[in-house]
Amino acid sequence: MGDVADSVVLATAAKLLGVNVETFRVALTKATLIVNGEMSRSSVSMARAVDNRDALAKTIYDRMFTWLVETMSQAMENTSALNKDAKLIGILDIFGFENFHVRKLLSICLILFNFYFIYPLGQ
Fold first, then answer.
1. Most buried in the list 28, 41, 106, 117, measured by CB within 10 Å?
2. Which residues contact 63 (CB under 8 A, 6 or more apart)?
3. Tell me, what's the pLDDT at 23?
4. Maximum Cα–Cα distance across the chain
5. Which residues pair with 34 in a beta bridge?
6. Are 34 and 59 in contact (CB under 8 A)?
7. How far is residue 9's CA from residue 13's CA, in Å, rounded to a whole number?
8. What does the alpha-carbon distance between residue 71 and residue 98 come to, in Å, rounded to a whole number?
């Protein structure tokens, strides 16, 4: 695992995802090309490997968030209609706030929007 900076992190992520660690490493660090039924692999640049990692993380986050919202919606639909008006769950999706220094204006606008428009709806 010489082309991965931290093999412990790679092994942990592979275990959590339920995939083979070597297959996972290859998926993140190699480009696969199939021409006329023949497969060839080549190493990708560090920047491309980082992009691959980030794209995977964003996809996992998106699918988990979608699953959470769908599961909560189904649970709320399956409950008694007696208190239907009293059911409200607010979710603030703040993915990307770890880059606050890059998205300063956007972050502030989202916080203000949620504070002044979304939060009062739940009161």
1. 28
2. none
3. 93
4. 63
5. 39
6. no
7. 6
8. 26
Q: What is the CATH class of 1-79?
A: mainly alpha
- Residue count of the chain, please give it: 123
Helix (H) or strand (E) holding 34: strand 30-35
User: What DSSP designation does 63 have?
Assistant: H
Look at the block and give the residue holding tokens 């490493």: 25
Query: How is the chain split into domains, by residue range?
Result: 1-79, 92-123
Amino acid at residue number 93: D
Q: What is the mean pLDDT of each run of 10 residues along the chain (123 residues)?
A: 71 93 91 91 89 87 81 70 58 56 63 65 57
Task: Extract the tokens encoding 13.
Answer: 């992520």
Residue pair 24/10 in contact (Cβ under 8 Å)? The answer is yes
Q: Give the end-to-end CA distance of the chain in Å, rounded to a whole number.
A: 53
Q: Is 11 helix (H, G, I), strand (E, B) or coil?
A: helix
Contacts of 42 (CB under 8 A, 6+ apart): 30, 31, 33
Nearest Cα to Cα of residue 90 among 68, 112, 64: 68
DSSP string, 69-91: HHHHHHHHHTS-GGGGGG-----
